[in-house]
Specification:
There is one protein chain. Strands 7-21-11-6-10-9 form a 6-stranded mixed β-sheet. A 5-stranded parallel β-sheet has the order 2-1-3-4-5, with helices on both faces. It has a 3-stranded mixed β-sheet with strand order 15-13-18, with helices on one face. Strand 4, helix 4 and strand 5 form a beta-alpha-beta unit. 38% of the residues are buried. By secondary structure, the chain is an alpha/beta fold.
Length: 518
C-alpha cells in the first residue's frame, strides 16, 4: 500500500499477539502495539491512526473506559472491541459506546483482516466492486432497454436503473457515474419514443397492455382496500419521484411493512393541474372539463387550478359505489401540518383520510429560483438527500408514526415527478402560450417537431382545447423549451434545474405504495 493504514492495538497481553501483528504487517498495515488504555490515549494525542483495536479486559483503564475517552476525543474514529466475554450486558455496553465492531476471542487472523478491510477500506472496495458490477451489467441493461415494449418492461428497466443509481451513489468513481448517467439519458429517450407511440392508444383504451395511469390508479389500487369501519390514509406528496420514495423507505421500515410497491404512469402533461385533478376525479382532463365545468380551469383561466379536488374525489367515490366517509386536507406549511396532526385522532372515524403535502414541489420550484437551494441540490443524489432530510424531520413523519401506532393502513403516492433538465429546444410562441418549460400549449407554436412529442389534436388524448387551433408539444428526456429571445440567458438560468410537464421516466413513472403497520 502506498499509504499504510495505521492500526492502534491496545491489549495488556500484546506480546502474545505478535503473530497477528506480523500477519497484518505482511498484508501492508502498520500496527502500533500498546499494553494499556492510557498508552493508547497517549498515542492518539501524538499521532493520527485509522482504526483502534481495544481489549475489553485490561488493568487500570478498562477497555470500555478507553473507548469512552477515545470517542470523546475522536468521535468518528473506528473502534473494534475484542473480548473473551459473550455476556449480553458487555456487548450492549460496547455497542452503546458507539463502537464499529465487536469480536469474541479466540479470533482468527482472517477475522482481523476482514474487520480492517470492512472499516478502513470499505469505500474503496465498494467503489471498485460497484464499478466492476455495473460494467458487467451494462450490456444486458442496454439490451433490456432496446427491447422494452410494454409498461411492465419499462417499469422493470426503471427499477434496474434506480438500483444502480443507489449502488453507484456510494462509489467515488466519477467516470463510472457519468457512464451510468449516459445510459440513463439513452433510456429516457427510448422511453419517450415508446410513450409517444403508445400514449393515444392508452388513454383511448385501445391498448391490450395499457398501464395503470393517473385516472385509474385510485380505482385499481386504493378503492379495493377501503373497508367499512376501518380508516385508510391516502398520502399524496406532490412531485415525489420514485427514487425519492426509495430514499425515504428505509426511514419508514421500522414502522411499516411494504404490502405493494409498483410505479404507475402519470398522464400528460405531468403537472399538478392535469395529473392530480385526474387522480382525484378518475377522469381525463377534457372529461372533467365536460362533466364538471364548474370544477375545471383551463390554462388561461385565472385562479388556482387545484381548488376542487375534494369535490372531484367525492364524485369519484360515488360513481364507484364507495359510500365511504372521507376527509380531505392540503398542507402548504409546517404550522398547518402540526394542526392536522393534533386533529388526527378525531379524524380516524373516517374510512378515508386524504392528505396532500406540497414540500417536494415547493423545493423543486425553489431550486429554479433560489441560488442557495440550487447549491444544496446540485445533482440527483443531493436532491434525494434534501427530500429525505425534510421527511425525517417533518410533521408528516410524526403523523406516519402515529398512524402506524394506531394500526392504520397508509397508501402513499404522488401526481407526477420531475427531471433535471439539460438540453434546450428552441420554440416560438405567442404571448398567450403557457410558461411551463417542459410542455407548451397554444395555437402558434413553431418548433422542430422531430425533436419533441406533438399532439396536434388535443381531444384525441382527452386534453382540453384552449382554442380551435391549439396543440400541445412535450419535451422529451432532459429537454426544455427556450424562446429565441435571450436564448443564452434562459438556457444558463434554467439548465440543471428540476422541472416537470414533459415525457421522462422521472416524471411519468411515479410511486403507488401500500404500507401496513408492523
Amino acid at each position: 500500500m502506498a499509504n499504510k493504514i495505521q492500526v492502534l492495538w491496545a491489549d495488556d497481553e500484546i506480546d502474545l499477539l505478535k503473530p497477528y501483528i506480523l500477519y497484518l504487517e505482511d498484508k501492508g498495515y502498520e500496527v502500533i502495539p500498546v499494553c494499556s488504555g492510557n498508552e493508547a490515549i497517549d498515542v492518539l494525542n501524538e499521532r493520527l491512526v485509522d482504526i483502534v483495536f481495544v481489549d475489553e479486559k485490561m488493568p487500570g483503564l478498562s477497555g470500555l473506559d478507553t473507548i469512552v475517552q477515545i470517542k470523546n476525543k475522536k468521535p468518528s474514529l473506528p473502534i473494534v472491541m475484542i473480548t473473551k466475554s459473550e455476556e449480553e450486558d458487555i456487548m450492549e455496553s460496547a455497542i452503546g459506546s458507539n463502537i464499529s465492531d465487536y469480536l469474541v476471542k479466540p479470533v482468527q487472523p482472517l477475522q482481523i483482516l476482514h474487520c480492517l478491510k470492512k472499516h478502513t477500506e470499505q469505500h474503496r472496495l465498494i467503489t471498485e466492486k460497484s464499478s466492476m458490477d455495473f460494467q458487467q451489467s451494462f450490456r444486458s441493461l442496454s439490451f433490456k432497454m432496446a427491447e422494452a415494449d410494454s409498461p411492465d418492461a419499462w417499469i422493470s428497466v426503471y427499477g434496474d436503473l434506480m438500483y444502480w443509481e443507489f449502488e453507484l451513489e456510494r462509489s467515488a468513481d466519477a467516470g463510472i457515474k457519468e457512464f451510468y448517467y449516459e445510459q440513463k439519458r439513452e433510456a429516457n429517450l427510448l422511453f419517450a419514443k415508446y410513450v409517444s407511440r403508445n400514449y393515444m392508444d392508452w388513454v383511448n383504451g385501445k391498448a391490450t397492455d395499457k398501464p395503470i395511469m393517473s385516472h385509474t390508479v385510485l380505482k385499481e389500487k386504493l378503492f379495493p382496500k377501503l373497508k367499512q369501519g376501518e380508516p385508510t390514509f391516502l398520502l399524496v406528496i406532490d412531485n415525489l419521484r420514485y427514487d425519492h420514495w426509495r430514499a425515504i423507505q428505509p426511514v419508514l421500515s421500522e414502522y411499516f411493512n411494504v404490502e405493494e410497491d409498483t410505479p404507475y404512469f402519470s398522464i400528460l402533461p405531468t403537472v399538478t393541474q392535469y395529473a392530480r385533478n385526474s387522480l382525484f376525479a378518475g377522469l381525463l382532463p377534457s372529461e372533467i372539463e365536460k362533466i364538471y365545468p364548474d370544477l375545471w380551469l383551463n390554462e388561461n383561466d385565472e385562479g388556482n387550478k387545484n381548488m376542487k379536488e375534494s369535490e372531484l374525489l367525492a364524485s369519484y367515490l360515488k360513481r364507484h359505489g364507495k359510500q365511504s366517509k372521507y376527509f380531505y386536507y392540503k398542507v402548504l406549511n409546517d404550522d398547518y401540518a402540526r394542526k392536522m396532526n393534533e386533529r388526527m385522532p378525531s379524524l380516524l372515524d373516517n374510512e378515508l383520510i386524504v392528505g396532500i403535502y406540497n414540500f417536494v414541489d415547493m423545493l423543486s420550484h425553489a431550486h429554479a429560483d433560489t441560488d442557495i437551494v440550487r447549491s444544496l441540490a446540485n445533482d440527483e443524489m443531493s436532491y434525494r438527500s434534501i427530500v429525505k432530510a425534510w421527511f425525517e424531520h417533518s410533521q408528516l413523519f410524526m403523523l406516519l408514526r402515529y398512524l402506524a401506532e394506531k394500526r392504520v393502513r397508509v397508501c402513499l403516492t404522488t401526481d407526477h415527478g420531475a427531471i433535471r433538465i439539460k438540453t434546450p429546444v428552441r420554440i416560438q410562441a405567442d404571448k398567450e402560450t403557457n410558461t411551463n418549460l417542459r410542455y407548451k400549449v397554444g395555437k402558434n407554436l413553431a418548433v422542430n417537431e422531430k425533436e419533441v412529442f406533438v399532439i396536434a389534436n388535443p381531444s384525441s388524448v382527452f386534453l382540453p382545447r384552449v382554442n380551435v387551433s391549439s396543440k400541445y408539444v412535450f419535451a422529451l428526456g432532459e429537454q426544455f423549451f427556450v424562446y429565441p429571445n435571450n436564448f443564452a440567458y434562459y438556457n444558463n438560468y434554467y439548465r440543471n434545474t428540476f422541472q416537470h410537464g414533459g415525457v421522462s421516466m422521472e416524471e411519468m413513472l411515479v410511486p403507488f405504495v401500500s404500507l401496513l403497520p408492523k
